[in-house]
Structures are given as structure tokens and as C-alpha cells.
Amino acid sequence: MAFSLLDSCLAALALVLLLASLSRKKRPVPPGPRGLPVLGNLFDIPKKESWQVYLDWGKQYNSEILYMNAGGKPMFILNSIKVIQDLLVRRSNIYSDRPRSTMLDELIGTSWLMPFMNKDNKWKGRVNHPPQASVCSFFGLEHRQLFRREFDNLAGSTANKNHEVQAARRLLQRLLTSSDHEGELRLASVDVILSITYGITPTNFEHPFITTPEQINEIFADVARGGYLVDAFPFLKYLPKWFPGVKFHETGERGKALAIDLLMGPYKEVKSQVENGTAVSSVASRFLYAVQEGADTSEGEIDAMRSVMANAYLGGADTTVCALYNFTTAMALYPHVQKKAQKVLDDLLSGQRLPEFSDFGSVPYLAAVVNEVLRWHPVTPFAIYHASNQDDTYNGYFIPKGSYMIANSWAILRDESIFGPDTDKFIPERFMKDDANAPGPDLSDVDLAFGFGRRACPGRLMARDTLWVMAAHILTAYDITDPVDKDGNKLTADSPMEWSNAMVSFPPHLRVTFKRRIPESMIQDALLT
């Protein structure tokens, strides 16, 4: 009987949607697969490699922009850089919102996360009164500008650079004895962002500051895949927890607790260290020491800073490990690229030391390798969906308010008119000038991997730094060899491989061997003091 009530509610909603769609005057939309009444294209959404499916559809319909309708929600897939620039960049005042998720915004309460904020006072980072002290002068800026000032601009500081180098060297030490390279890369990724943000160094996979972001990112991935009916039909949130078949309330409560732990856990630990005078230099400790020394700081300003730090922590914990997995995969599958990168590092370091950030300009081929990692398979093939905040028209097509705008970054980064031939292959030389040991004239196109318009990732400079220093250390100290899949089958560059169909897209699990190529003593003695 209870299930029939839910069925009746859904049937009533379907009838309303059907009547509304029949009563609306038809306006031209881009081509796309023909959908079902009411449900639209819900069953057409690809389950595997959706980025490639959407690109194939674009060729099939001879259109750079496609239209789908999922349960009454208009979706526009943008398959070319021209369409993306025209809409998400040149009309960013219209297309900088995010789609609303009942699960995330209401049940879990993650509206403080910058990727999910819209153009309101929170995203803008406004406070009720202008700050007085210099330490708080950034609180009148937008959240994204605050993030860049604290992480991208300060990423050049000695303290932050040292955190990244030390995390890389701790990784080299663990790889001496560990056979779980995926686990060690995962630990290193969280090590970097926790060290920079909070001065905290996790030492094992069970540390709550590692498990918390992983658990909440699993929920985010389910939301991105459309895994919660309450996002398609928000009225279901009013169903009581005891209602048969209702599980999203339980997930929401678990996610809310995880979000609070994410926001407050490391912050409280650093605050305690600051009070005891034991905190190491980090974004959090520098801020909290300034507050302790009498900076005029409101609670709203402290909340804003706490939010920005948690944003960095969560974002780095997921995307950085994916980028490192992609790097390891590429080096194992393309050994000639690995050898070439190792040679330029060996020529520079002469077997006497490990890399430093001061070496960056001396090894442009390694910078090209990093760019190719970001291009070859972007960590977020669709970035995060944009949403339109008003009705609009483009090339005669109608784009209604609230439409999902899905930028196919993967397709753009495989565009041969931008990146040259064989874009399915890993070729760092595409970022070099005449295949010489000199950078090409313009490497900025790979920034497309970090999103578009006002919603481009504010942490992209720090992400590049981390990937570069990790790659430099790994290639200096180890050969990455003998790639095999989960069943033990040998892999080559021509082997079929399937990346996960998710907001953050991971490569398939594979096993490789890390063979030491420098004296063990150089690795053991390398940690900075």
C-alpha cells in the first residue's frame, strides 16, 4: 500500500509534466536523440564513456551543440571550443550558475562548497562590513579570489613549495617498500593538500582526514550519475524516513556529518596547535596566528576562510590523485616518453640530488609531459555542469532558464585542429617547438582541462605545481614498468582501456612495478629540514 502511494505521486507528477509540455509552445532546440514522453532522454544517458558518445552524436547530427531532456530538465551538450567560448565565457553572466541538487544543497548542506555555489553573496564572499585589518583585507573579495590569493599566489611561497616537495619525497620513501602504488599515490595527494592547507601530515590510509573526503566524494559521484531520485523529483524530500524504499534521508544524514567533519576536523586541530604554539607554517596557521595576535576579524570572515580551506582540502584530495594515476598510467604505457623525460632530468641533476622547484624552467620537456597528462584524459571530462539563469537564444536555438550546460572538455582536448594529429596518443612533443628541448609558443590551451569562464578551477596553478613536482621526483627515482590489468594481462599503449564514467574520471586499476634507479641513500636522506 505504501509503495502504491509513491507510485501515485510519481504518476501525478508525470501527468503534470506531460500536460505542461503539451501546453508549451514549441521553440527550436538543437538536434539530439528522440526521447520518450515525460521521461525524455533519461534512458539515453550513456553508462560508459559518455564523452565519446556525445562526440559521436555530434558527428551523427552534424552539430556542435546537442539537446537532451532528462525528466523535464533541458540539457545542452557543448562539443566545440567555439560554442563553449560563445556561451560559457562570453555570456558567463548567464551561464555561471550551477544546477541545483536537493541531495547536496538541502539534505547534506554543502552549499558552502565553491563548485556548487551560485552567484549570491556566498559565492561572492561578501561580508556585512568592510574588514579593517590587513590580514582580513581579502574578505571583501569573491570566494574564488580569496582561494587564489591564499593558494595560487601563495603557492609560490617557500612554505607551500616546501610542503609539496616534502610530500613528494615521503612518497619516494614509501615506494621503497610498498607494492601498492595506487594507495601510495592516494596518500601522497592528500598529504600535499593537507600539508599546505593545515600543516598536517597523514601517515596511513585510515587517518580520518583521508577517509572523510573519500566517503563524501563517493556521495558526490553518485549525485553526478543521477543516483538519487529526490534530485529528479524534489517533492520526495517530504517523505518521512520510515517510508518504505526511502534511503536518501539516511545518505543525506551521513553526508551532512561527513561535511561537518570535513569543514571542522582539520581546522580544529590546527587551531589547537596554534593555541599551544606548536603549529607548523600553513595557510590555516598563518591566518590563525594573525587572528590570535589581534587582527580585527569577524566571525563571518573566519567562516569564509574556514570554508575556502575546506574547499581546497576536498578538491585536492580527489582530483590530484586522479591526475597522478593518469601520469603513472601514461608513463607505463609509453616507456619511450618516460625515458626521454628521465634523460633531461638526469642531465640536469647529474645523479647528485633530487629535483627542486627552482629546476622548473630547466626541464621544459617535463612541463610538456604534465600538460599532456592533463590533456590526454582530463580528470573531469565535463568539468562541473553549468546552468543558465535566464532564457537565452543561440544560433536560433532556444535555451530555457535552468538548463544544464555540459561542456565536453574531453572532446575539446582531443580536437586535432587545436592539438595536432593523433590526439588519442600520449605525445608531449605537441607542446614543444620543433621537437626541441624548448617550450612551444603557447601552452595555454591545456587550461581547458580546468573548466571555463568564471567557473574555471581556481586551484589550477597549485594543481600543476603538485603534478610537476610529483612527476619530477618519481621519474628521477624510479622506472615505472610492467603494466598489467587487474587480471594480470600485459598492457600496451594499444590495449583497450576504460576510464570511469564519473564527475572525476579515474583510469582502470592496473598494477605496475616501481624499480629504483638512484641510490637508496639519496631517497632516505632527502627530506627537507
Automatic annotation (TrEMBL):
Keyword Iron: yes
Keyword Nucleotidyltransferase: no
InterPro entries (alphabetical): Cyt_P450, Cyt_P450_CS, Cyt_P450_E_grp-I, Cyt_P450_sf, Cytochrome_P450_fung
Pfam family name, one: p450
Pathway assigned to this chain's UniProt record: Secondary metabolite biosynthesis
Signal peptide bounds: 1-25
Single Gene Ontology MF annotation: monooxygenase activity
UniProt keywords, alphabetically: Heme, Iron, Metal-binding, Monooxygenase, Oxidoreductase, Signal
SUPFAM superfamilies: Cytochrome P450
Positions with a binding annotation for heme: 457
Cofactor(s) needed by this chain: heme
Family the UniProt entry places it in: Belongs to the cytochrome P450 family.
UniProt name for this protein: Cytochrome P450
Protein species of origin: Agrocybe chaxingu
